[in-house]
User: Which sequence fits this backbone?
């Protein structure tokens, strides 16, 4: 009597173990054989969703640019076809095999491109208002950037799908949240640009514009103005892009001209600019440092470093921290209110680093949309 | 390993203001941004001393506390 249940129990336990082992071995084999394919499937779905979002953003920015050209710029004819050509226009960077003189070549290409954009936009709108033209330029730049982002992501998506390349798709999938975030920031910038509101990047111009109000201004470089003022016995040469247009100007050319053509011998060059904050840092925080505080492709930075080094002028930087979204969308309260602290910091740096009778060059770097002088 | 595309951030509404400041008495007045406003643009007369105020700041404030 006691024998049979024990055998039955023994049998059932052995079968259970066997099934258990088979199940996990099967799972292991399945994972080994199909795991990558499953991940590829999920990655494709994920990237596909992101790509749809990017397409919507791209089309929205294109439509906003066309609407602005028609409604505000009063374009005489439908600008859609010209805008589409504009979005696919490419700038071919010079060859870098022989780096000597490379910056000048880049400068030449970039200047040619900027002049072309300005001329085309001016031709597209039927009015000569520089604010409208500069806003149109910025809107088209946003649409071009979103168009390019969408194209590149789509390229790797299709390539990964075609070749079933696990690593291409996984890398793209991991980058997608950042790509979407930056694209979203670009799209949000459109709203500020359309109505001419200052953006976070304009904190440099906002800070120095206070020193230029009521002073005589002269055009010192393309889209760049300068005013001369005084602070505690020092002569200040204040430079910023010409506002309230959406210009960034040519601060590199302006600083070189002040020093080399006007014969000014500054004891310091102080640059004020927006700086990208790291996650966890507070918006509107001010940081001080040395060096040329300017972003972009590097041409202006090179020119400023070159002229400062040649003339042995120390370069000081005052930076206002902000995120990429805050830098290209309407200026946040924390950033705007930092302008007072920036001016106080600037005054302290001038007092500490220069003496009475010295000349000082102050440059407010950034997009000066909505900030005159 | 899986990283997902985030849903659109929960956007708090941004209200844009222009701050007019009197260069003589320093009186500040905050009002809603009007298209055409820019920093250093002449504003209305100062409510305190009657001098010409000018736009000193244009900024956006979130209706929700920023995180």
Assistant:
């Amino acid at each position: 009597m006691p024998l049979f249940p024990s055998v039955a129990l023994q049998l059932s336990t052995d079968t259970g173990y066997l099934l258990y082992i088979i199940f996990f071995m099967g799972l292991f084999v399945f994972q080994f054989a199909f795991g990558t394919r499953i991940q590829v499937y999920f990655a494709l779905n994920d990237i596909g969703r992101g790509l749809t979002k990017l397409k919507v953003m791209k089309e929205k920015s294109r439509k906003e640019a066309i609407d602005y050209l028609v409604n505000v710029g009063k374009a005489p004819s439908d600008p859609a076809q010209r805008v589409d050509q504009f979005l696919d226009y490419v700038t071919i960077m010079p060859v870098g095999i022989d780096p000597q003189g490379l910056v000048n070549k880049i400068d030449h290409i970039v200047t040619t491109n900027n002049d072309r954009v300005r001329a085309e936009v001016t031709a597209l709108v039927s009015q000569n208002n520089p604010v409208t033209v500069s806003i149109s330029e910025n809107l088209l730049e946003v649409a071009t950037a979103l168009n390019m982002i969408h194209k590149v992501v789509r390229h790797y998506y299709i390539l990964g799908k075609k070749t079933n390349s696990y690593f291409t798709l996984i890398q793209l999938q991991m980058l997608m949240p950042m790509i979407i975030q930056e694209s979203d920031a670009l799209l949000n910038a459109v709203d500020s640009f359309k109505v001419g509101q200052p953006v976070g990047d304009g904190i440099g111009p906002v800070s120095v514009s206070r020193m230029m109000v009521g002073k005589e201004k002269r055009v010192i470089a393309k889209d760049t103005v300068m005013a001369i003022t005084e602070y505690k016995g020092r002569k200040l040469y204040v430079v910023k892009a010409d506002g309230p247009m959406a210009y960034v100007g040519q601060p590199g050319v302006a600083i070189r001209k002040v020093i080399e053509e006007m014969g000014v011998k500054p004891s310091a060059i102080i640059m004020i600019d927006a700086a990208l904050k790291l996650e966890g840092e507070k918006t509107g925080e001010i940081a001080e440092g040395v060096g040329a505080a300017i972003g972009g492709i590097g041409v202006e930075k090179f020119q400023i470093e070159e002229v400062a080094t040649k003339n042995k002028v120390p370069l000081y930087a005052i930076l206002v921290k902000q995120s990429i979204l805050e830098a290209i969308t309407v200026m946040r309260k924390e950033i705007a209110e930092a302008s007072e602290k920036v001016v106080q910091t600037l005054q302290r740096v001038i007092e500490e680093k220069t003496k009475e009778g010295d000349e000082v060059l102050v440059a407010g770097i950034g997009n000066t949309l909505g900030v005159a002088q | 390993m899986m990283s997902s595309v985030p849903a659109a951030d929960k956007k708090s509404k941004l209200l844009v203001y222009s701050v007019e400041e009197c260069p003589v008495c320093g009186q500040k007045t905050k009002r809603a941004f009007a298209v055409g406003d820019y920093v250093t643009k002449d504003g209305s007369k100062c409510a305190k001393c009657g001098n010409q105020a000018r736009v000193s700041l244009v900024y956006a404030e979130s209706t929700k506390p920023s995180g």
In short: Residues 14-62 of chain B form one domain.
